[in-house]
Amino acid sequence: MSAAADTTATADSVTAISVRVIPPQMVWPLRHEVMWPSKPLEYVVIPGDEDAATSRHFGLFLLDKDEPVSVVSLFWERREGQGVDESVAQFRKFCTRVSHQRKGYGTLLLERLVADARAGGAKSLWCNARVEQAGYYRKLGLSDVPGRAFEKDGQRYVIMEMPLRRPTAREK
Ligand SMILES: CC(C)(COP(=O)(O)OP(=O)(O)OC[C@H]1O[C@@H](n2cnc3c(N)ncnc32)[C@H](O)[C@@H]1OP(=O)(O)O)[C@@H](O)C(=O)NCCC(=O)NCCS
Questions:
Q1: pLDDT band at 96 (very low <50, low <70, confident <90, very high)
Q2: Which InterPro entries match (predicted)?
């Protein structure tokens, strides 16, 4: 898990963007606003959010703004008696501020997460996808895991995954 903490990219010719590893406290407000605005803020805090050995949080920032417009969290499993399994990574709680969606920010952020997961040794990446986002994730290279759809709090999900190949020398 040795990826650099900061990257800078440009989505278009005008907007300067930075993608950064951020503390969990910085992802909670956007998670709340976008994903569960009707629930209390505590609802969006998930077990492991504050365990740096098993999670890492990313935020995409515009120009010099202090608040991220898109966030996503990367998780690894802690296996009983074997430490953290870095070969299988999960992304969770991916969201972009409604006013900033469909501009390519989420894709940029997820690309950074994929690069970090791969550099950390993950061989596959999976997520519980809201069914309405499954088409978007398929475009990004994830596939549905058959027979693993479920419903939680009135929201339907499908489990999706993708293999992660090793980075080439040029990509490192
Ligand atoms: C899913 C989510 C995080 C994607 O974030 P985003 O910043 O909008 O992502 P992108 O802009 O990179 O791509 C999203 C869509 O916009 C399209 N897009 C990207 N750039 C675009 C542009 N310049 N103009 C128009 N569309 C564009 C992408 O092709 C994609 O299209 P699709 O939905 O038809 O597949 C965002 O929609 C979101 O927060 N949704 C609500 C929360 C949620 O459901 N999270 C996922 C839980 S599994």
A1: very high
A2: Acyl_CoA_acyltransferase (IPR016181), GNAT_dom (IPR000182)
